[in-house]
Amino acid sequence: MEARFNLFDNEISAKFGKRFAGASLVIDQSELPKATRELVSLRASQINGCGFCVDMHTKEAAAAGETPVRLNLVAAWREATVFTDAERAALAFAEEGTRLADTHHGVSDETWAHVRKHYDDNQLAALISLVALINAANRFNVIVRNPAGSYTAGLAASLKS
């Protein structure tokens, strides 16, 4: 399988991609836990059917020490006992923030209250930014049909410098 379009070989998309990757540095430097960032990115990518991003965030999370059990249960997080209450709040937020078309209210008041209980203003700002950023990344990769499987952990970090 080959991508329809190589985003890195085009001058416009390569410039945009560099700035897009740079925007994630703000989230990376926030106090939102790395595990939460990867779990949220993985869940949104699963919902959006972005194989490339599922591959990337699974491998990045594993490289950061995430367990196979937790990674395998992200899609079924509601029925799993391996996530903290804070992570469960972030996963619910990621799902509702990703599935905006499913309800005209977006993120529910209940989910918002649950997230506010576990995250301070800076962490919440990072979480909001992360959900927006991963959904945009999913769209890039799904549109051009970037294939999954060849991502190497650490590659995304090299694009941010």
UniProtKB/TrEMBL annotation:
Keyword field: Oxidoreductase, Peroxidase
A GO MF label: peroxiredoxin activity
InterPro entries per record: AhpD-like, AhpD_core, CMD-like
Carboxymuconolactone decarboxylase-like domain sequence ranges: 26-96
Domain of life: Bacteria
UniProt protein name: Alkylhydroperoxidase like protein, AhpD family
Organism in which the protein naturally occurs: Pseudofrankia inefficax (strain DSM 45817 / CECT 9037 / DDB 130130 / EuI1c) (Frankia inefficax)
